[in-house]
Specification:
alpha+beta; two-stranded antiparallel sheet; 7 strands; 27% helix; 26% strand
Length: 111
């Protein structure tokens, strides 16, 4: 796995890596955000458009931002250079990153 650059937060970098492994392309051409269940708990919605787009759950996602949910509850909102994510015992940046890494491994095994 490649290391993120100092200009992109680790979570956003890993979302890009996951999308690449899944062969997701041209999310700016989708009618809405690119949405994906990272695992049974984490769900992401990434806006690749130049304008704010509502995702399938009605949340407005700013250009080039990511909306994150854990078990259907809001858990984070960030752009490539950072943002906000929950800081609980179970729902936090570390567990989200581990879920992304697990999803990448799983996708690589299946490809």
């Amino acid at each position: 796995m490649s290391e993120p650059t100092s200009h992109v937060c680790e979570a956003f970098h890993l979302i890009g890596e996951l999308a690449s492994v899944l062969c997701v392309r041209n999310i700016n051409q989708l009618p809405r955000c690119w949405e994906h269940y990272v695992d049974e708990h984490w769900w992401i919605s990434v806006n690749g458009h130049r304008e704010t787009i509502s995702n399938s759950r009605g949340v407005e996602v700013a250009p080039y931002n990511c909306w994150v949910e854990f078990n259907g509850w809001p858990a984070g909102y960030f752009a490539p250079n950072g943002g906000t994510i929950a800081a609980g015992m179970i729902v936090n940046e570390g567990t989200f990153i581990e879920a992304l890494k697990g999803a990448i491994r799983k996708a690589e095994e299946q490809s």
